[in-house]
Design brief:
Elements: E1 8-11, E2 14-17, H1 21-27, E3 35-40, E4 43-48, H2 60-63
Antiparallel strand pairs: 1-2, 3-4
Amino acid sequence: MNSINTSICRWGNSRGIRLPKAILDIAGFHDDDEVTLTVSEDSIIIKRARETVKRSYPSLSERFSGYTGDFIPEEWDVGKPAGKEI
């Protein structure tokens, strides 16, 4: 079994663990893979999600797939800086 030590870090109101690339490569995980987390006694098990598990919300590209409008985002001038935002 391959193992490596890491630490739990604060990420907003949640906590996160960085997964080293070497460990992800060994497990065969890739960016944006969906995973299932299972708690068992004093362990957290990470497994690849089954193909049938889908997001409960549409992705950004799915949300805009039918968009046919003519809106083009652009920058606008809001005036001179008033504080330390530069």
